[in-house]
Amino acid sequence: MFNKIQSNSEIRIESLDYLRGIMALSVMIYHLTSWNLYHLDASTLLVRLGIYAVSIFFILSGLSIAIAYSHFIIDLKSSIAFYIRRIFRIWPLLWVCIIAVVFLYILEGREILSLKILLLNFTTLFGFIAPTEYINTGAWSIGNEMVYYFLTPFFIYFYRKSLILGNILVLLSFFITVYFALFYLDLSKSLVSQWGVYKSDE
Questions:
Q1: Band of the pLDDT at 3, cuts 50, 70, 90?
Q2: Could you please report the per-residue DSSP string of 29-82?
Q3: What is the DSSP string of 74-89?
Q4: Do the Cβ atoms of 50 and 34 come closer than 8 Å?
Q5: pLDDT of 4-36, one tens digit each?
Q6: Quick one: pLDDT at residue 194?
Q7: By CB neighbour count within 10 A (0-12 exposed, 13-18 middle, 19+ buried), where does 93 fall?
């Protein structure tokens, strides 16, 4: 079924990597086409792939992290180690990108970003408290990622404590998602006008 590879005491499922790669490629082609070639109608296959591939990509990333760290995260110490690993994986490159944008702002004579916005982005706290306040294009997904990383040890802890508790937590997450997708988002309005809600829903 899945080709499992045991490496460094972690299980890697190659088929998930392939699917994640296909989804990432779909998003890249969607953005390349819509930003540089021509505006695409929301009903087209490419736009749907671009939008839904992001959701699938998040699901696959979450599944991969859960598989890789389910036996690693066992207590507070290992949870903190997990947070540190994720931070050092995300922050350095993000900081380079933020500094590059700020430098461009200065060169173009544009208004310098506020200290609050800079702090929210350098710490990725915008994902928790202000999903629309990201500086770099596409960084909203990093904000979502950091929220998931924060929650991961809690999910694993509840599942270790009790399968029932873990399933209840997952069901609660599912119902929150359904509420956002089917009730909180207004189908009569465009996705762009509800971008903040959409990012929170992701």
A1: very low
A2: HHHHHHHHT-PPPTTSHHHHHHHHHHHHHHHHHHHHHHHHHTTT--SHHHHHHH
A3: -SHHHHHHHHHHHHHH
A4: yes
A5: 434 344 566 777 888 888 888 888 888 788 777
A6: 66
A7: exposed
